[in-house]
Amino acid sequence: MRKSCLLPVTLVALLCALFPVVPAAASAADPTPPVTTCDAPSGWQSAPFTVHFTASDAESGVAVTWAAIDDGPLLEVGGPAGASVDIPAPADHSFDGVHTLIYYSADAAGNSEVAHSIEVRVDTMGPRTSVRAAVGYKGRAITLRYSVGDRLSPDVAAVTLAPPIAREMRRLLWELSAPEAAGWIRGLDPRPGAYTLWKGRVLRLFGARVKKSEGSLGDPGTVLRLTPQGLEIACGQGSVTVEALQLAGHKRLLAADFLRGQPLIGQMLE
């Protein structure tokens, strides 16, 4: 009897050794990879932007998100708290074009999802517009034909006609910074031309550049000195040089030639 009772116990021990019982925690292993989405814009972008990734895993949880741009290295860009990638858009247009963004996530159990691939588009150059006018006569309507082209994003919605430049819009405000004042003059050069007032007379300005000023500057609008680049004039911040000037009713002259007949140095332009 005693011998017969020991036999089942021995068999049970042997079976347990050959086929161990798996703990409940191990039997609930996570076999499912995470799922990752992103908010990358679909159209062309002209400024830097950020692509955000959202990864989810209902079992072991998200561990890490990886991403790469074009043929660049795969980088860890985030984890459970979120992930993102900054897409540059430098002013020198060096990153313009269509780029491939690859991304995927892995969970705490070691599962990795299949990598996703999307395109991001960067275009920092504006379209080019040309216009051709049919031959017409004064007092008659003529037709203007516009041609618009863009190297990267060719789908130009429409040509927007700028309003006529009123005379008061051409007058330069010397309280502007030097880059703003120089841009104002260049934008209206050669026609219709930016202007200022000198002793109540209209004085048109051409060929402006931002000047790296040395020494003290006067009040905005003060004519400072003649430089090899032109006539230096103080602005709200910094100064500009003007290559040529033209008084109303007179011809356009280089700054050095203009000063031979008009003593502008030290004068105030309004």
Give an overview of the whole structure.
The chain is of the alpha+beta class and 270 residues long. The chain is 16% helix and 37% strand. It is built from five helices and 16 strands. Strands 1-3-6-5-4-7-8-2 form an eight-stranded mixed β-sheet, with no helix packed on it. Strands 11, 12, 13, 14, 15 and 16 form a six-stranded antiparallel β-sheet that branches. A two-stranded antiparallel ribbon has the order 9-10. A hairpin with a 5-residue loop joins strand 4 (62-69) and strand 5 (75-79). The protein is elongated. The model is unreliable at 1-27 (pLDDT under 50).
Which structural category do the helix and sheet elements fall into?
A: alpha+beta
Under CATH, the topology of the domain at 167-261 is which?
A: Methionyl-tRNA Fmet Formyltransferase, Chain A, domain 2
Number of strands: 16
Round the mean pLDDT to the nearest integer and report it.
Answer: 81
| Gross geometry | elongated
Spell out the helices and strands N to C. Answer: HHEEEEEEEEEEHHEEEEEEH
Identify the CATH homologous superfamily of the domain at 167-261: Formyl transferase, C-terminal domain
Strand order of the largest sheet: 1-3-6-5-4-7-8-2
Count of runs of 4 or more consecutive helical residues? 5
Q: Please indicate the percent range of residues in DSSP E strands (runs of 2 or more).
A: 35-45%
N→C terminal distance: 123 Å
Radius of gyration using CA atoms only: 36 Å
Any idea of the CATH class of the domain at 167-261? Alpha Beta
Name of the CATH architecture of the domain at 167-261: Roll
Q: Which stretches are poorly predicted, pLDDT < 50 over at least 5 residues?
A: 1-27
Largest sheet: 8 strands, mixed
What's the helical proportion of residues? Answer: 10-25%
